[in-house]
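Task card 7
Instruction: Convert sequence to structure tokens.
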Amino acid sequence: MARPDFVHLHVHSEYSLLDGANRIPKLVEACKADGQGALALTDHGNMFGAVELYKTCKSGGIKPLIGCEVYIADRSMYEGHNKRKGNGYSHLTLLARNRQGYQNLLKLASAAYIDGLHTRPRIDWALLDQHAAGINCLSGCLGGRINQLFLKGKESEAEQLAAHLSDIFGREHFWLELQRNGIDDQNTVNEALVRLKDRLRIPLVATNDIHYLRHEDCVAQDILLCINTGAKRDDKERFRFETDSLFFRSREEMGHLFRDLPESVTATMDVAEQVAVSPPANPGVITAKQADVGHLINQWANVVRWEMRTRLFLRTMECLWQEGHTAHATEECAVEDTVAILAVDVKVAGDSMAVPVIRGIKTASERFAGAVETYCIEALMQDGKSLQAGTSHFLGQNFAKAFDCQFQNKNNELE
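Output:
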């Protein structure tokens, strides 16, 4: 069977927290084994894996395609998520095409956490319009706005939105995203997307919404979803994926799956060939112009505490499994295990956050500082760098050393 030119453009890694079950190095290995020359990363609402993708792909001879599957509030990112009141959210697949696009993606992902975090880190259509330059856009998975409009019988509105996205991104930088995952609703919207392609002359592109590497890894990813939602696997009413096909398909498999629409497979090469992005060698300056570090952390604490809690939980579980220990199945217990795994003196905060904190620290900002400093210390130790530890006063310096950037204090002095 033919092996058409194809690359995966819709891919989730472990940075799609408690949802994606892929490790970036394994994805790169799969690309090399199948002769795919590029690899995208489109994690849910964040770009946490962008630098790892870039470095791993470059070392493996694969072209990195840095992206994000953003959550877009139906009405406004400044209003709370409420689907019943008309402010639910949808998905959209974005890939940075050049340096301007990379910077715009960073702005969108940051704003989603700073201003739009409610259930999910969200942007809105108005913000997207402002930061569309330099970005390639795919219309999204079944949860995309265009597809949701199709399912509601609102084909005219779907067409209007597709035309709008084509206008703001540019006709040569917008594609209608097809997936074939065995879900009945997906088959329905695929037919509508083909009709839309004929009317608006917008090209189709095939993706597989990868969440795990191999077909048999579907079970492991399903367990992640259970941890995410606090459900048991035998709960018939729990959230689950309706398909077991979201794995890394080979070029041959994708060619066969879309054999009636071969142009949608080779269109992935058009998307990839447009991309020319290299993140800056120095990630930037951490600045605290108007306030001290503790105050800034206090502003960010509510924004990132869910992400920090989840990543600490996953890190602890992973270390326990590697060392042959029995891993606890709740975040609260995982916090206790963090003492032994990361060799840090911790205690559980008095609320439901369940975030490890340095002993004696009480405020929300200092709780967050303690959690971040733990990661900084660990990263520095792994890299063999010197470190300062003990209080959140040294957070900026440790962060700068761990991530190879400069730290700027409240007096605008580089340290």
